[in-house]
Amino acid sequence: MPRRRPRAGEKRMDAAIDHFAEMGYRKADVRRVVNKLLKDVYGKDGWPLLEDSCYSVVQEALFEMEEQEKLQQQQQQQQQQNEDDDGDDEGEEAHPD
Hints:
The protein is mainly α.
């Protein structure tokens, strides 16, 4: 059975994935960011805007995604540390100064 011919959007998505794979981005992350930009910002015909300046809009969105993930990790670590600190205090008796 012959392989089906990819649609234009699929070719463009593959090109975007290839571009960012060289920089170490995961395929799923690139696909999610591109789809979100096309859906929420540029519309289905927005590929030329995404491709402009070597996907700079996509790069910015990927940077924002990374920053949000880092902030969430820091908040979770801080929360865990606070919970651990609170747990340590329970076993100690209060000593008046």
